[in-house]
Known about the structure:
Elements (H helix, E strand, L loop, with lengths): L1 H6 L2 H8 L4 H29 L2 H15 L2 H4 L3 H29 L5 H29 L4 H22 L17 H5 L3 H16 L4 H9 L9 H23 L2 H21 L3 H28 L6 H30 L1 H22 L7
Helix pairs in contact: 2-11, 3-6, 3-15, 4-6, 4-8, 7-12, 10-14, 10-15, 10-16, 12-13, 12-14, 13-14, 13-16, 15-16
Amino acid sequence: MSSELIFSLLPIFMVxxxxxxxxxVGLIExxxxxxxxxxxxxxxxLSDILGKRKLMATIGYGISALSKPLFPLANSITMVFFAxxxxxxxxxxxxxxxxxxxxxxxxxxxxxxCFGLRxxxxxxxxxxxxxxGILLMYLLVDNIPLVFWIAVIPGFISLGILIFFVExxxxxxxxxxxxxxxxxxIKLLGWGYWKVSTIGFLLTLARFSQAFLIVKAQASGxxxxxxxxxxxxMNVFYAFAGYPAGILSDTINRKFVLLIGILFLIVxxxxxxxxxxxxxVFLGVILWGLHxxxxxxxxxxxxxxxxxxxxxxxxYGIYNFINGIGMLIASLLAGILWDKYGSIWTFLxxxxxxxxxxxxxxxxxxxxxxx
Length: 371
């Protein structure tokens, strides 16, 4: 909740208070989000080597919590950059060990329920954080730094709960095999996997940082106090679409559902590019959320579909690395286009990458792709 509260206001803080260009916003967000994806490659493997899930998760949560006070203290864009970098780096470190720790703590017969609860709580935080931001902006008369100070509190509460109330189960000492990725393993991943990874990369190029949606809404007349509602709307429709999209992909086929998801993004980008009407901006944000719900989990499932079980860790690591690079390129390009040619070209560039992905799926993917 802490990070979501800060992020819902951070792009506006950078642009209006610190005078950052959209290129700088894109660079900071691109580096931050790509850092999360790339750090995940190593954190899970390192927790396996050390055998200390709680330690790794605590380090990740600790780095994120300690970075939070930098946001209200920031008087330059450089300070925001370091705050955002360490916040996302901490997230990248903690996520895989945290999930592994949940898997070890949870009783086997309710393990699915436990992971479902974790995902539900993540979604609640993603919605409650921005909603709290709206309330605080009202009560504190649009004082963003003071809102950031309040956002520091949940981060340290989470860290305290992990340190004092979560116990790591004792495990038998086991010999840890090498987890290094070797060239011959990459070659064995197969053409199907690389097709999925290519589509994932193209969609990451199309789906730059959500910071651009926030700034678009503000430029279209959304009052400062209501800015966090953009993140709320996005996350609600993202959460709403994910489960039924998964059912459709299992009962019909992956290709059909993936194409629907990409169509949501294409239409959303066209609307956001050409319209400055606030209600149309909200429609574009809704379509972005539906796109995320229809494609993110599905692409992860398709990575599983196209890889052997003993190469799957390698496959997801490479997939995250590719998307991390894509996110950096996408957000930086989006910022440059916004500054030079206006927001229309930022969103149309995203739509163009989506169209390319749409065409490649039609050409190269089998209509009978199923789980």
